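Quick one:
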Amino acid sequence: MSELHNKIGLRRWLWRAYVQSALLPLVLVETVLIACYLLSNQAIRDAQVQYLEQNAMDSLSATADQNAQIIQDHMGHVAANTDLFAHMVEQALANPAHTPPERFATTADGARYSPRNLGGAASFYSAATPLEKQDLGKVGSLASLDSLMEEMKNHQPLVASLYFNSWDNYNRIFPWFETQKQYPHDMRIPEYSFYYLADAAHNPGRLQRWTDVYLDPAGQGWMTSSISPVYRGDFLEGVVGMDVTVGGILEEISRLHIGWGGYLILVNQEMNIMALPHAAEHDFDLQELTGHGTQEAVKSERFKPAGFNLGMRPDTADLAKTLAKAPNGRAEIDLKGRTHLVAWNEIQPSGWRLVALADRSEVMAATNNLAGHYRHIGYLLIAGLVGFYLCFFTYMWLRASHLSDRLRDAIDGIADMLRQIGLGQWQPRRAESRILELDRMAESVLVMGQQLGISENQRNAAQQRLELVAESVTAGLWEYDLEQDRLHLRGEFVARFNLPGCELLRHRLHPHIHPDDAPRLDSALNALRLGVISRIDLELRFLAPDGSEVWMLCRGRKLELEGEATHTLVAGTFVDIEKLKQVEEDLLQRTREAQAASQAKSRFISSISHELRTPLNAIHGFAQLMHMQATQTGADTQSLDEILLASGHLSQLVDDLLDWSSLQAEAPKLTLRPVNAGRMMHECAEMVRGQAETVGLELQVRLPEAPTHVMADSRRLRQVLINLLSNAIKYNRPGGRLLLGVEPCDEHLRIYVEDGGEGVDPALQGELFEPFQRLGKENTAIKGTGIGLSLCRELAELMQGRMGLHSELGVGSRFWIELPLANTPSSVGRVERSGRPRVIHLDDDEPSRRRVARALAGVADVASLDHGGQLAEALQQGLPDMLLVDLGVDGASAISQLKGIEGGADVPVVMLTAKPDPSWLSFYAFRAVLLKPIDVEELRELASSLLVKEEPHVH
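Output:
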């Protein structure tokens, strides 16, 4: 049902195809285009914003620079006039007065002042200086400067008033006002900043200075003063000053133009705002102080509140630090939640900063409006695209529905044809379609039905012939259901052994099978169910109704049924092999008889040889004693020499015969180990060098340049080389060539012996290695039996090598033996590769694992596993030299894993069990079975035997 729910109809399939192949790409393309439009518009806007911002900052900087220059010019003019005014005051005080002193009035508190406005300056002598100490002469000298003060005031619009303050609290100020009403009667002038900032402590250079903004005691509101000291020698007579009101500064600043609705503020060196225009009051949340709100006299200094200091405000503290660091520059600042662009420049020599500010949103207003316009155009494009595709999707849906209906009708017709063919109606009614491909499909289905009808008839005929052949060749057929554990038997086999022709449980077949063979069949069927094997091939003895035994060959293999992954069937045959068994038994009997005869012959030859050796040893020994006595007495020894030569020849003949007979009777066990070829050649050469020199031959030896090892049995290799060297000496000519050398040959080493004898005819070379074959040399003076080369070839083959020759008549012969190099993978056994043998022990019994480890200590390295799941990881480290397994612990699976690896079939497997199962013993090729509890000595002997067999020993 879940698969049915996952399937879709033809209409939906076509619609998905339209959407995936046509509509979605179109929508994607349009979306990408609109996205590109919006992104490009945004990129252009960002570029414009960046350009305008840079342009605005440049403009602000230029404005600040220009306006700062203007303010600097005005302030510089005021400063210059202040210095001029101080110089004039200094000269006036130095000259006595020539004008009569003006009339003064005195307050009740003792302050002297000018009571009327006579068109000149106003005078005020503070009561802080007693009347008798007031210097009226100084007052008269200063009166001569009133016209100068008037001219300076009139030519400097920014200057609100000019004044001179003396050290003894005298004040002369222009224009005139009622000083007695404005000043405190006991006013101490040196305590005010417009005086003490010019004294020697604050102005040691006696230069012009500007004060901070303060509240004017003269009643003109908030102002700043340009002051300059007046000295008489080193004595400070007083300070002159020119007052510039904040209102005047603001009025001057208001005449300066700033774009984008910006404004200018004036900041002194202490970061106090000296002039704040009305446009800036909202942003800084301040109201500029211009006038004096009360009529009370200013009795002490008063400066602007802390709120006018940029460094003490949280929103402008960073700006204050930036302004203090550089005389000019640019920055950004947030005021009232809005970003402002800032540029400033320094006004010299006062060190003030003229700061220009403009709202960033005002600067970018035009660009933002244009970007919004283009963004609206993009939204309109998106809306138009959505509307268009809604209409287009509707049309495509209707079109897809129409096409799917036409296709579905044709496909349903073809499906109906296939359905009828599936029911055996080979000639269904043909479906019609206007679509060429579907019409051809219907025609092909019709032809297919006809072919299936013909094939079905042929299949029925072939089935009948097959059943006929099966009945004539096999005794019966069988099927085994792995899931149901049931057998189904058919054919002549059922009637012959009186078996039911229907399905039957497996155990009901046991009474018809020999008791020794039934467990083997059960083991094979169990292995099929476990998935260990996929086919079986068993020879079983079935019991006929009369009680006789009949040999049957039971063969079968697993079949995977299509469409039924979980249902597996095993099918096979029963073949009568009773006659084959009888023939096999006859052949085995005759083979045993032949082997017994061969062994008897070998024993006879061996016995005769031993019998001959005893008298020969006595003859040879006594002949040697007699030869020694004859030599001492000087008697003739010719006869004794003949006896010694003949007895030596007979002894050699007996030795060769014994070796050959032992090879024929039973191949000897050779232990192949790495042998140093150069050392072996040197030893053999030295052993025969004296024999060669006796007959006038010089033995040359060409040893390997580097130490080279071959896999061989050292004793047998020495025997082969000495035999080849002896033959080369015997069959050589006087002064002929005699050479023992080596040459590499792939992964082998070829050791050869060359002689300068007569050579061997190519036609006779094939017979040279036959036993007792001397190729016509039997009647010559050269002694021999003809079995030496045959024995050498057999020994070479037993050492996994080979032997051959190359000979030319009249030139000589080269006999060689090839042996595998000891460092090649194909020749080095597992013991040589990995050191000590490696044994895997699979057993869930902890005492058993400890006993095995103790038994094999010093013999092999034991890897103990307690469950089959660990075997795969252990096999990744390489094949073991032996596997000890308890079949009760995933034993079948472990054996299957081992046999499934290349080379795993050669690993000996030993079963450990407390109760052996004959069925497993018959099915798996165990090398041995050990009963639990394990005998330690028995295990050590068995392991030593099996591990030795796994080494490169040859039989």
